[in-house]
Amino acid sequence: MKAISDKMKNGLNRQITAEFESAYLYLDMANCLEDRNFSGMARWFRLQADEEKRHALKINDYMLERGLVPELGEITAPRHQWSDEVALLEEAYHHECHVSNMIYDLVAQAMEDKDFASVSFLQWFVDEQVEEEEHSLKWLEKARLFGGNAAGLMILDGKMGKRTPEEQKS
User: Fold this and answer.
1) In 10 A of CB 22, how many CB atoms?
2) pLDDT tens digits for 127-163?
3) Among 3.30.2290.10, 1.20.1260.10, 1.10.238.10, 3.30.70.100, what is the CATH number of 6-165?
4) Of 81, 119, 151, 169, which has the most beta carbons under 10 Å away?
5) Contact between 19 and 59 (Cβ < 8 Å)
6) What is the rounded CA–CA span in Å between residue 49 and residue 73?
7) Whether pLDDT at 170 is above 50
8) Mean of the pLDDT values across residues 14-32?
């Protein structure tokens, strides 16, 4: 099997860190929402944090399978407070778009390297990010429709709280 280039190795290491940062961010969002008595939204983000950790481990394990020892980077602390639930959901959506761009850069690097094993591996993440962006945008658009209306946000809280661990792709 073709060796992974240094650029690809560095990119995969950065992606592991980014996935753990996503988990850290979503756990912080869950904590914030729980504090505001939006336990359904908090549940959704806590499950999302768990999913992001699994994504990091998936890349970690892929690197090990390819004979590389992952180098874990420093995790950036989240900002801890959002002005309202819409602002929080906006950050979640923009964060998913950022992660998507990181994945696309990895795919481009794998293609440039003609590292078809990595292209194949990364396709799962491309598909996953389409779903992640879709879900985060859906929740954001609904929250925007409610415009901060407490009754509307409580409906959204109930809907987001119905997420089950089985719905996660891992």
Assistant:
1) 24
2) 999 999 999 999 999 999 988 788 989 999 999 998 8
3) 1.20.1260.10
4) 119
5) yes
6) 18
7) no
8) 97
Token digits of residue 63: 């690197």
Q: Which residues contact 125 (CB under 8 A, 6 or more apart)?
A: 55, 103, 106
Q: Are 78 and 28 contacting, i.e. CB atoms less than 8 angstroms apart?
A: yes
As given in the structure block, the two tokens for residue 140 are 């954001």
Q: Which whole-number Å values give the CA distances from 68 to 54, 56, 63, 108, 117, in the listed order? A: 19, 15, 5, 20, 14
Q: How far is CA 16 from CA 20, 52, 92, 154, 165, in A?
A: 6, 10, 18, 34, 22
Q: Please report, as a single letter, which amino acid is at residue 145.
A: L
